[in-house]
Write a structure and sequence with these properties.
heterodimer, A: alpha/beta, 6-stranded mixed beta sheet, 6 helices, globular, B: mainly beta, 16-stranded antiparallel barrel, 4 helices
């Protein structure tokens, strides 16, 4: 005979699953991915379809910086490859150390779209997975552009992107073709 | 109190966790991450069960030992029926990597055998699994771990070619010894011609002078026959092919494994497994999906033992953040396990079961 106390537990579990499905459907309607569009020499920009596209595009101008990388300029494909962790040693023989904006950085979302063609959340998960696989060294996450610039300045092999409005020493700038 | 502090520091040191101010930590580059999951299941066979499960919990530690030398460790506490507490700890990975040239490395230690996409990319990270559980092949025919030496290259050229060659302890080994002098060999390659796509293939070979299985080989289905397991020589081979496409909208993963185990008594057993997953990312956070999984281990197999399993499932993955996801999955499984023909255990009862299940999983990382 089936114990009667099992029935409520089954119902609770089934209802929980149903509730989750409803939450998931609501979540599906609340977030839509955006698209990376434009890149210009020296700076990389994004454009968005949202109503605040202009403001976001202004915020999304970036400068690529590095310390003793041996590269004075890179093309867009190489830039994406670097921030995807597809390079481990620079031409200068320095080990590549990638510096990324943490989730607290105000430019993290725009950076993720420009550098990786991803959202900030996807970027964090991508790197978490890559390090977990053991196929890349973990990046350094920092909270502000000033922290990033200071870290790059004192650490050979580092590479990062910061908003163009930042006070960037010229010797750190890497041109994007 | 003092003893507790000393113990805590000893544990932290043993796990390779260096507690440093953030600036110093960034330079020394030691990082620890944890992963785990909780699950609720309702399953119906000849009776209905509903229960909650605390799943595997993982601690990974990465550390830069020098400019070119890094360490990666992964310790897992996982459910085990042979433990008084129901859980046992194990070292799943402990490897030292030397990067000698751009994107080329030599690795020594215990690694995930890079035979296919799943074993190379996900393994214990339920947070990264596209579905609730591993494919069947991962408890039967796929050699999960190898302890030895690995040569690895990745992201080479325009096609982003990658290779892995591993030589190490075989399927019947433990983490401290192996019988015989013939090592297991894995040769694998993959290409990533466009972002999101990875196509790969591999070959694995192991000659066991004395057939056996260790839980770390991952072939836990063999372990359930441990009392009567065939202990003569056995030649084991497996060929795998993987196709993974994780685009902005569509996600596809197919894992095909074809295995052969050869014994002088029963000849060559041909085994087959295929797992296919299809997901459609309807938004950044929500991905409905479906999967089909199949494995057949031949009647004359003396390593895994005969088995037929099939699963079809549909589910939804909801990523709350980069560190938390919830998956819910409805699945139907069919299992038919039996004993090898002409074996001493051939008269033992066979198992046939159909299971309808509803599973919900909360997976997290920290």
């Amino acid at each position: 005979m089936r114990p009667t106390r099992q029935v409520p537990l089954v119902r609770i579990a089934a209802l929980t699953h149903l509730a989750l499905l409803l939450v998931a459907m609501v979540g599906a309607m609340c977030s839509l991915p955006r698209v990376v569009r434009a890149e210009t020499p020296g700076q990389v920009t994004t454009s968005h379809d949202s109503v605040d596209a202009h403001a976001r595009a202004q915020k999304a101008e970036f400068v690529l910086i590095g310390n003793r990388t041996g590269a004075s300029d890179v093309d867009a494909a190489a830039l994406h490859a670097i921030f995807r962790g597809e390079r481990s040693i620079w031409a200068s023989k320095q080990t590549v150390i990638i510096v990324l904006p943490s989730s607290r950085a105000d430019y993290a979302e725009d950076f993720a779209r420009v550098a990786l063609d991803m959202t900030r959340m996807a970027m964090q998960k991508y790197w978490l997975a890559l390090v977990f696989q053991g196929r890349a060294n973990p990046p350094v996450f920092l909270d502000t552009a000033d922290d990033v610039i200071a870290f790059v300045k004192r650490t050979p092999g580092t590479v990062a992107m910061v908003p163009a409005r930042s006070d960037v020493p010229k010797e750190l700038v890497i041109q994007v073709r | 109190m003092k003893r507790a502090v000393v113990t805590s520091l000893a544990v932290a040191a043993a796990l390779g966790v260096t507690i440093l101010p953030s600036r110093l930590a960034a330079q020394h580059r030691t990082q620890a991450n944890g992963f785990g999951y909780l699950e609720s299941t309702v399953s119906k066979t000849d009776r209905t069960d509903g229960y909650f499960t605390v799943g595997e919990h993982v601690l990974t530690v990465f550390s830069s030992l020098s400019d070119r030398l890094t360490f990666l460790g992964e310790a897992v506490i996982k459910p085990s029926g042979s433990s008084a507490t129901g859980y046992l700890p194990s070292i799943e990975r402990a490897l030292v990597r030397y990067s000698y040239l751009n994107n080329h490395s030599i690795i020594a230690g215990k690694v995930h055998t890079p035979v296919n996409y799943w074993n190379d990319v996900y393994h214990h990270g339920r947070l990264f699994f596209p579905v609730v559980d591993r494919p069947y092949a991962f408890t039967s025919i796929v050699p999960l771990h190898t302890l030895g030496v690995q040569a690895q290259g990745q992201n080479l050229g325009r096609a982003k070619f990658g290779y892995d060659v591993v030589v190490g302890n075989g399927l019947s080994s433990t983490d401290v010894s192996d019988a015989g002098v013939t090592p297991a060999v894995t040769v694998a390659f993959h290409v990533k011609p466009v972002v999101g796509l990875r196509i790969g293939a591999s070959y694995y070979r192991d000659y066991m002078s004395r057939n056996g299985t260790d839980p770390h080989s991952g072939q836990t289905l063999s372990a359930r026959h441990s009392a009567t397991l065939y202990t003569g020589p056995l030649n084991y081979q497996m060929e795998s092919a993987s196709l993974a496409w994780f685009g902005h909208r569509i996600e596809v993963l197919n894992e095909l494994s074809v295995g052969q185990s050869h014994t002088d008594s029963l000849g060559t057993a041909h085994n087959l497994s295929n797992f296919i997953y299809l997901g459609v990312r309807v938004s950044e956070r929500v991905t409905p999906y479906a999967l089909a999984d199949y494995i057949r281990v031949a009647d004359n197999d003396l390593h895994v033992y005969p088995l037929d399993k099939r699963k079809v499932a549909a589910g939804m993955r909801f990523e709350i953040s980069a560190m938390v996801s919830i998956k819910t999955q409805i699945e139907h499984q069919y299992e038919y396990s039996r004993y090898p023909v002409n074996s001493p255990t051939a008269s033992l009862p066979i198992t046939r079961a159909q299971t309808l299940g509803l599973r919900m999983q909360l997976a997290y990382g920290f």
